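Example record used in the benchmark description.
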Amino acid sequence: LNRDTVFLSDSEIMNIDLRNAKIYLDEGVVYKLTENNLSIYDYKGNLITQKEFQTFIEKVFINSDTIVMTEDGQMQIIDTDLSFDIDLSQKNLLNIFEDTSLYVLTSDMDYRNNYIEVYDRNYNALGLIKKNAQRVLNVKKSMNSNSIIVSSFDYDGNVIISTVSEYLTKDYFQLWETEFVNELVIFLEPGNDGIYLATNRNIYKLNAQGVVLWQYGGYTNLKDLRFINGALYVLEGESETNLHTINKDGKLLAKINSEHNYNKMDFYDGFLILSGNRYISYIKDDKINLLYNSQTTINSTLLDGKVVRIYTADGIISMNLNIK
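Model output (C-alpha cells):
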C-alpha cells in the first residue's frame, strides 16, 4: 500500500442512558436490554422501536431478524408475525446460526441429548440432527451448497473428544467425521479449498473429506482468527498480544508482538484493525500503530462501514475511519 496514515475523526457520542443495561452494537443500530424490555436506537440516540415482554429476556439472537427468548421459554421474532414451531420446555437453546437456512441449536436441560434443528427462511422445520452426548459448538454452511459443517465435543470428566462433521441437508446423512482428542474447536471456517478450524492448541486445514492437510501450533489463549485475501490472521496471547500471519499451506509468514492487549480483528480497505480493552490500532509495514487510547475500559467495538463504534462505561462513541 502506498497510503501512509490511518486516523479517526469526527467523534460523536450517543446520548442514551446505558446504566443497568446490556448493550449490543450492530450495523446502524444499538440494542439495549433491561430485564424485560428491548429498545433499538440509531447511533444518534433516536429510539427506533421498543418492546416489553411479560417475563425477563434470557437471550437475544441478532441476525437479519432479531429473535428474543424470554424466561418462560417463548421465542419471539421482532417486527414479524412469523414464529418458530419449537418446544423449549425441555431444551436449553444455545445459539442460532443463519445462512440460506436457519440452524437452531438446542440442548436438553440434562445435556445428554443435543440437537441441531434446521428451519427454512420462514421458520418452518426442515429436519433434525441428533448429536446425543456431544455438545454442539458451531454450525456453518459448507461451500458445498447441499451440506453443513458441525463442530461439537464430549467430555467424560477426563478426556475431551471434539469432532468436526459434514451432513447433507437433504436427509442429514453424515458424510464424514474427524476427531480431535483433548482439543476444543473454537473457530470454524469453511473455505473454497478446504475447511479451516482452530482449537485451543492448534490450527488445522481439512480437505473436502475431513482429512487433516496440515496443522499449526505454538500459541496460547486464541482470541480471534480471520481468513483474509488467502491468508490466516491469528490473534493470541495472555497479558500481551501476538499476531501470526499464516498462508494457505500452514507456513508462518509473519509474527508481530505487542505489549498491549488486543482481542478482535477487523479488515478495512487493505488495513488490519486491532481492538482491545483500552486501545484500537492498525497494522502498517508489520508494525502496530495506535489509533485510539480509551480512558475507560472498552466493552466492545464494531466496524460499521467506515465508522468505528466504541462502547465504554462513558457511552457509545462513533468516529470516522480515514485513510490517506
